[in-house]
Amino acid sequence: MNAYYKSLSTYLYINAFNYRVANLILGYMDTEMNKNINLPFRKENPDVIAEFLFKKRGTLKGIYYLPRYWLLIKIIVNLLPEKILFKIIKTLNF
User: Fold this and answer.
1) What is the pTM assigned to this prediction?
2) I need a labelling partner for 67 at 20 to 30 A (CA). Which of 20, 29, 34, 47 fits?
3) Which residues of 1-94 form beta strands (DSSP E)?
């Protein structure tokens, strides 16, 4: 999805189309489907995400990490060497 977002954004920019494109990277949501599942990170209420998106509907463009702590997780994962990352993933039983 990230590659598609970047390609689409680039295409629209190069061809001077006036469209906004947003890439929403969502974390764990507190829904019926996963209510009994223990997850390593806090679940976010979908209503909070929906309210954020509704407020930003006129200016929504770019990459959004929701909840915002997912950006920190992404940065940490990108900085870790693969061997250490694989060891952590194996320990957490993903």
Assistant:
1) 0.78
2) 20
3) 22-26, 62-66
pLDDT in tens, the chain (94 residues): 999 999 999 999 999 999 999 999 999 999 999 888 888 889 999 999 999 999 999 999 999 999 999 999 999 999 999 999 899 888 877 6
Q: Give SS3 for 35.
A: coil
Residue pair 39/55 in contact (Cβ under 8 Å)? The answer is no
Q: Please, which contacts does 67-71 make with residues 24 or more away whose CB atoms are closer than 8 Å?
A: 67/27, 67/42, 69/27, 69/41, 69/42, 70/25, 70/26, 70/27
